[in-house]
Design brief:
globular; disordered C terminus; 32% helix; phosphoprotein; 4 helices; alpha/beta; 5-stranded parallel beta sheet; Rossmann fold; Bact_response_regulator; Sig_transdc_resp-reg_receiver
């Protein structure tokens, strides 16, 4: 399995995962941890925004359909506070309707699709 490229500091990539479904949150986190990523997993948009003050992320995987602060609003906060962080949306919605981002991960997803996010995304650019 290809490992994700180290960050500019040489550390493991730090990934924010935001999903209100506990099973999806666990699955995404497990796949990313298995790919040698340092994962911060949160179950709400509010917790995601709060975590932006404590961590510097390389990638954010955000569910679009979150109660409270929605996924698109979380992405706005991520982009504002972490301009080099790549944003990927995940959702049960049709991927053609996702807002602009570095990538999309339609549900249900496979382990390989999650790993592809790490190997096929270029830092700071579109997929």
């Amino acid at each position: 399995m290809k490992r994700p490229a180290p960050t500019s500091t040489g550390a493991r990539p730090k990934v924010l995962v935001v999903d209100d479904d506990p099973d999806q949150l666990y699955l995404l986190s497990t796949h990313l941890q298995g790919a040698d990523c340092d994962v911060v997993a949160v179950s709400s948009g509010e917790l995601a925004v709060a975590s932006l003050q404590d961590h510097v992320f390389d990638l954010a995987v955000i569910d679009l359909r979150l109660p409270g602060i929605g996924g698109n609003d979380v992405a706005v906060e991520v982009r504002s506070s972490h301009p080099l962080c790549r944003v990927v949306f995940t959702s049960v919605l049709d991927a053609d309707t996702y807002p602009p981002a570095h990538g999309g991960l339609p549900k249900p997803f496979t382990r390989q699709q999650v790993l592809n996010l790490l190997t096929h995304l270029k830092p700071g650019g579109q997929a």
